[in-house]
Batch of 3 targets.
Target 1
Amino acid sequence: MLMSRADVAMYAAKHTDAGFLFYDPKTDPHTQQRLQLSSDLRHALERNEFVLHYQPQINIESNCIIGVEALIRWNHPEHGMIFPDQFIPFAENTGLINPITDWVIRTAIMQCKTWQMAGTELRIAINVTAHSFQDPLFVDKLATLLCGEGTCLAPERIEIEITENILMAEIEHGAKVIGRLRDLGVSVAIDDFGTGYSSLAYLKKLPIHSVKIDKSFVLNMAEDDNDAVIVRATIDLAHNLGYLVVAEGVENRDSLDLLAVLGCDLAQGYHISHALPADALILWIKNSSWVSDEVAV
Ligand code: C2E
Ligand code: CA
Ligand code: CA
């Protein structure tokens, strides 16, 4: 046990600059609890335990809701609602991420079609990890789903979110996939922008639609001048490259006002709404002050 725990600590230490780390059961993939979770995760899809929640995005200038981001949750029979940070990295390491992403895309597109048929025109943003982005069939599967099961969804209704680190890790492959998505009419957003090491020279060549400023810069931007400077610079830079800018993690009125002054295009965060189940979202839209004629409910 000593050797195996030392090994776990060494593995974790290699991912930090510290040089050494004490054993922490939280990073141990072999604990009974994690092994159990991994086995449960394998069955979660067939047992229909995943759900998507949807967090609204508003246009800052018009104050209208223009779309939503689909965020996965795992409704575990014993542990209750589990958030994605607790199982997505796990799913990536165990090869379960591709079927989960397929499920997310299928469910999000079906939901968007349902809203469309009910007269609610919303754009939906879907998170995709490196594994799924590297799936050679990714774009074809998406195209099939857009026009499957009797109804077609306009491709502009879908936005794929990938983090800048995924893109930078395999820039040539990434550029090809983004190009194919653009040909299909599906747009791409760079997620968590500012946390990675994007090469701007590369970024400007990519047919990206928008960048999402990471919430770590947005959360305290109204109080922290340094954060505000980073947000301002990112907005200017992205606009100069022709991209739309989304700020995530907007938790208060002051941040939203400041973003408006800085010319940010879209906002998402608890100040507007948390992520909601599909039915609750429609109720929220009906009663919300953020809505105008742009969305017909
Ligand atoms: P993300 O893509 O950066 O998603 C935004 C996260 O910030 C969400 O957490 C959201 O609930 C949270 N958030 C939104 N507004 C605020 C705010 O005002 N303040 C704060 N503090 N947080 C806010 P969530 O749902 O726990 O998702 C965490 C991460 O899990 C996501 O980060 C994304 O990377 C990943 N994820 C979520 N759904 C999926 C999915 O369907 N597939 C994949 N591959 N990853 C997903
Ligand atoms: Ca995202
Ligand atoms: Ca993000």
Target 2
Amino acid sequence: MSIATIRNVMRGDGDRFVYVVSAMAALNGLLFGFDTGIISGAFLFIQDSFVMSPLVEGIIVSGAMAGAAAGAAVGGQLADRLGRRRLIFIAAGVFFLGSFTMAVAPNVPVLVAGRLIDGVAIGFASIVGPLYISEIAPPRIRGALTSLNQLMVTTGILLSYFVNFAFADAGAWRWMLGAGMVPAVVLAVGILKMPESPRWLFEHGREDEARAVLQRTRQSGVETELDEIEETVEKQSDTGLSDLFASWLRPALVVGLGLAVFQQITGINAVIYYAPTILESTGFGGVTSILATVGIGTINVVMTVVAIALVDRVGRRRLLIVGVGGMVATLAILGTVFYLPGFGDVLGIVATASLMLFVSFFAIGLGPVFWLLISEIYPLSVRGSAMGAVTVANWGANLLVSLTFPVLTSSIGTHWTFWLFGGCSLVGLVFVYRLVPETKGRTLEAIESDLRENVSLAD
Ligand code: BGC
């Protein structure tokens, strides 16, 4: 967040309130990050408590992604039907249930059930966090506010590394997994005090409530914004879920699905989930690897802050182009580092530095901007469902990469694996350059209107 943004926040009551609302909703991101990150550490000790087949081990680690894909598949429609706020409350409850089940699991089947439940909550949260914030935020700071969710994802991942570290000596995996209950309770209680999305309210015929929310969250322009929302709602009155397959919506669907897949197949979670393993292979000891991983997690948070400061000024497209371009370059370097002999003792240091650079470029581009754009480019009538479809693709691709990374490195080598991610990034760069629209500073209704009028999104 830039100094100017902080000053703006302090000036206006509307902005201050909308920051509190967004920060509360961004706890969805914190839980998403924490619950995906915590398993790497906890798993080491779970293996000491239970005898498991490799298949069951795989399900425990990647079960959350499968659960998240399932959660995302229904979460979008639930958000459209029940409302954004109610789904956040449900997600918090499911998070609590999943963490509790894992923490007290007496046997492997219960543990697996807990992990799948937790995954469903992650799926809900990954849609409804950015969706809710983008609908309640004023256009001028929507990018920064919505990206708070991604900032909390990265913070949650980092926090999970620390919690793992804190409980590692005692091997207390139940405490590691149970720790997720705390933010879940805060989110459940906090969201009850927050208003519903004004756009969802309007769409459900609750105009007065929508106006009241806008009055609390805007310094001016409430009636104009309401008129715009009304116009959009009127246009869509004859359309429904089938809109998702309408030809005018296709460009936006292609952009969302493409970004969803590129966000994952460019390899971020090979690094986020496997950094200690990658670093140990360079000759680093266990503790050094974990410390270097904390460094990688920290740079992920820091660079997301940089993205937030820039996203409403330089725009979404430019951040994506610089970010994905940088990933292409750093992946080429990473492949080379692992390919060339002769780095000897410094291999670990060079690899850590390259991984940090790679994560930095992800964090200023594909990390936050993917979640932001998919909450902006879909029409109100199908926003939840479209985000759901795109998010399922994101979790599916995540599952694919996290399951195949160990197989890839042992079959084609670490260097080729990074070059493969680099090749995917290069295709991703062309995709972004040619197809991704700029949405900076525009109302969600103006973005929708362009889409309906068939204006090429990338113009
Ligand atoms: C991605 C996650 C990833 C995280 C890392 C998110 O935007 O969706 O898969 O683990 O960023 O910061």
Target 3
Amino acid sequence: MALRAIRTYGDEILTMKSKPIKELKDRFKVLIDDMLDTMYDAGGVGLAAVQVGVLRRIVVIDISPEGDEPYVLINPEILETSGEQTGYEGCLSVPGKQGTVTRANYCKVKAFNRDMEEYIIEGEGLMARALQHEIDHLEGEVYVDKVEGELLDSAALAEMEDEDTEE
Ligand code: NI
């Protein structure tokens, strides 16, 4: 297990486009393992390779509560989107912040797994949001630029939600 340093917003690399993987060399397999370790350690549900400083089209996602359903997406491509959802979104590269982003509510993606076999992954709600958010990273886009209104402190947001539930 190895953790890699997460690049934060303002780092120029996060604005750069990632390159496709042609052959999954050993160093990329190590990278995928490290990305999963780094994502779980930081308590995130998704991570793109660029966030650990590697400009390659690799994404890991795990939205399961137990954190035991990791998806590895190599060279992911969005095939289809539909519907709309508006909700809070965060990013490991923008620690302690959240903002409101509108995204498609359904997303269907073609990608390669860690054995370089092509597969289809689709999801609604949070999964669709994670897919779109992570694939944006590969294009050099960070969600901050899509936020409607203000970027909020997660701590302040949690307090607001607590007040809501206390009533
Ligand atoms: Ni992110």
